[in-house]
């Protein structure tokens, strides 16, 4: 090492020189060094390449931009014909603005009675002539000024027997003003409720009046009702009460949960449940009974049909005779495994065949249905769907597990306004213009109902037509029996 090396110098002066001398790592940051120049150039270039800061916030600039580009709308209708503009305009909407009706928040708008009174009575009569009796009566009752122009003649038209349907339609429109009354369909007037808030469904042989009606025991003019199962009916008044509660509040009717029931009759167990979806009342009826294997055709008829009216014990719509509902039930009963003889040569033959096939016979195994009886069936003439299953259930009388046939029905009961609704008329067979595959083309009734009560969905099932050949023979046909 040379004598000029700092490590060879000793003394007080050399100590201060070494202490104040800059370190080697600091020399790279001195002016004129190559690395320092590269860092400064890189920083300056990054600053030059960065985009300029916007004058407004990005979201606000986006709103202003699309407001300017898409400000032109139809001056007559105020509509946007371009769907792309509609989607972009959603981002420019002011969420804090008032989106309600223009008249809802305008307390200073002038009354319209002056405009109504300015038109002559003959003009209002001409307008009412284009309306049906129910609509004309609704127009006349809208205000005292309209009533003075139209008079009481439109209400007198509703009393004609041929206009009973229009009268019921008109009366159902004032349900919200009568929470303590209920519309009587046979009388076409409102009666006072005698069991207000405590109405309950009861068997058909129990007299259960919800109001005092002179036609309560008149068999010639019975109230509208629907057959749920053998010995159980659903009066239309309960559909009214449920939908009134849904529309107007608890004072007007009942909740759907109060309509559900469980009962047993003729060796069949039944359970009903109700649900409101999109303004319609949906019903599910589950019926099951134990079935022995290897039933003969006559034994199947005894198991499935009531000998009183020759209707099925389970729930069915008015079109159950036309189609493949009963043949599918009989096919499902044929799939129940038969009991084998375990002793003797016949039992040995069965065991040898099972060993060769590599399987073990179990009389309590799960039953697999075929492609004819397994799919879900939908009635093409009414909003009703069926699912036929064979399950292993416990018989509580002896504690054993047995095979049981289970028939589940989902149906749409309508909006509950009048019995003239398309759904209520379709399931009772009075409306022949209903097409269920058109009304429920995207989603089935069973899927809508089950999704409302459980996160689990039904197993994937094909939905086939209950009457694919569209033959309407009724009792004249022999396939249903």
Keywords:
481 residues, alpha+beta, seven-stranded mixed beta sheet, two-stranded antiparallel sheet, 17 helices, flat, disordered N terminus, F-box domain-containing protein
Question: What is the gist of this entry?
Answer:
The protein is α+β, with helices and mostly antiparallel strands and 481 residues long. The radius of gyration is 39 Å and the shape is flat.
Helix content range of the residues, please?
25-40%
Low-confidence stretches: 1-7, 31-36, 95-105
Question: Residue-averaged pLDDT, rounded?
Answer: 80
Number of strands: 11
Structure class: alpha+beta
Shape: flat
- Radius of gyration (CA) equals 39 Å
Largest sheet report: 7 strands, mixed
What is the number of helices?
Answer: 17
Distance between the termini: 120 Å
Order of helices and strands: HHHHHHHHHHEEEEHEEEHHHEEEHHHE
The spatial strand order of the largest sheet comes to 5-6-7-10-9-8-11
Roughly what fraction of the amino acids lie in strands? 15-25%
Question: Would you kindly provide a written description of the structure presented here, covering whatever features stand out?
Answer:
It is a single chain. This protein is α+β, with helices and mostly antiparallel strands and 481 residues long. The chain has a domain at 252-335 and 370-476. It contains 17 helices and 11 strands. The protein has a 7-stranded mixed sheet, sandwiched between helices. A two-stranded antiparallel ribbon has the order 1-2. A two-stranded antiparallel sheet has the order 3-4. Helix 6 crosses helix 8 (144-150) and helix 7 (133-140) packs across helix 10. Residues 1-54 are annotated as: Disordered.
């Amino acid at each position: 090492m040379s004598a000029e090396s700092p490590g060879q110098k000793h003394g007080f002066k050399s100590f201060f020189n070494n202490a104040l001398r800059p370190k080697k790592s600091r020399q790279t940051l001195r002016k004129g060094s190559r690395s320092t120049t590269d860092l400064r150039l890189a920083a300056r270039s990054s600053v030059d390449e960065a985009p300029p800061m916007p004058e407004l916030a990005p979201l606000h600039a986006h709103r202003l931009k699309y407001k300017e580009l898409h400000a032109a709308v139809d001056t007559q209708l105020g509509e946007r014909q371009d769907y792309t503009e509609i989607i972009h305009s959603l981002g420019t909407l002011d969420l804090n603005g008032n989106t309600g009706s223009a008249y809802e928040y305008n307390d200073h708008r002038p009354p319209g009675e002056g405009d109504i009174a300015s038109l002559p009575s003959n003009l209002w009569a001409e307008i009412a002539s284009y309306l049906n009796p129910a609509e004309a009566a609704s127009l006349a009752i809208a205000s005292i000024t309209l009533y003075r122009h139209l008079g009481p003649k439109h209400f007198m038209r509703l009393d004609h027997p041929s206009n009973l349907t229009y009268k019921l339609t008109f009366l159902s429109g004032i349900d919200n003003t009568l929470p303590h009354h209920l519309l009587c369909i046979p009388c076409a007037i409102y009666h006072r409720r005698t069991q207000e808030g405590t109405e309950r469904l009861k068997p058909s042989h129990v007299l259960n009046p919800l109001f005092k009606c002179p036609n309560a025991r008149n068999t010639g003019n019975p109230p509208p009702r629907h057959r749920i199962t053998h010995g159980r009916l659903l009066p239309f008044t309960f559909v009214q009460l449920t939908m009134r509660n849904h529309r107007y509040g608890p004072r007007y009717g009942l909740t759907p949960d109060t309509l559900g029931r469980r009962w047993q009759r003729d060796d069949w167990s039944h359970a009903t449940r109700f649900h409101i979806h999109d303004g319609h009342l949906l019903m599910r009826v589950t019926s099951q009974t134990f079935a022995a294997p290897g039933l003969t055709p006559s034994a199947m008829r005894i198991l499935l049909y009531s000998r009183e009216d020759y209707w099925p014990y389970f729930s069915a719509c008015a079109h159950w005779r036309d189609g493949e509902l009963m043949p599918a039930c009989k096919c499902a009963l044929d799939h129940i495994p038969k009991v084998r003889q375990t002793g003797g040569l016949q039992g040995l033959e069965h065991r040898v065949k099972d060993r060769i096939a590599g399987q073990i016979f179990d009389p309590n195994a799960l039953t697999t249905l075929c492609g004819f009886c397994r799919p879900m069936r939908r009635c093409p003439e009414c909003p009703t769907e069926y699912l036929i299953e064979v399950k292993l259930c416990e018989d509580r009388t002896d504690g054993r597990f047995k095979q049981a046939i289970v028939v589940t029905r989902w149906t749409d009961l309508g909006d509950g306004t009048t019995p003239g609704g398309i759904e209520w008329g379709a399931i009772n067979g009075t409306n022949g213009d209903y097409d269920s595959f058109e009304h429920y083309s995207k989603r089935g009734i069973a899927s809508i109902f089950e999704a409302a009560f459980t996160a689990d969905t039904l197993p994937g099932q094909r939905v086939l037509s209950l009457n694919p050949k569209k033959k309407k023979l009724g009792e004249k046909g022999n396939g249903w029996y």
